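> Could you send the Ig-like domain-containing protein prediction when you get a chance?

Sure thing. Input:
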Amino acid sequence: DRNMSSLPASLGDTVSITCRTSQSVSNYVAWFQQQPGKAPKLLIYDASSLETGVPSRFKGSGSGTDYTLTISGLQAEDVATYYCAGYYSYTPTVSW
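Output:
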């Protein structure tokens, strides 16, 4: 099930997006960004590991069932839909 909500913010803000999994996923959580008309892009894997090429203003944290994506210094290009996903594997390979 997906629980979607909007988060009002202004450019330059620090924004935190939370995700709760139904059971512990041992830090196997990925965060994705989907901009309008584009395929989802992997930002964070293993809860806090930054994917290559992703700006350092994106930070993942959390453990157990509660995880957070923090964007520091919000920029115009960060306006998007963000998804979290729990998985039971190693670093995910994602293709669309």
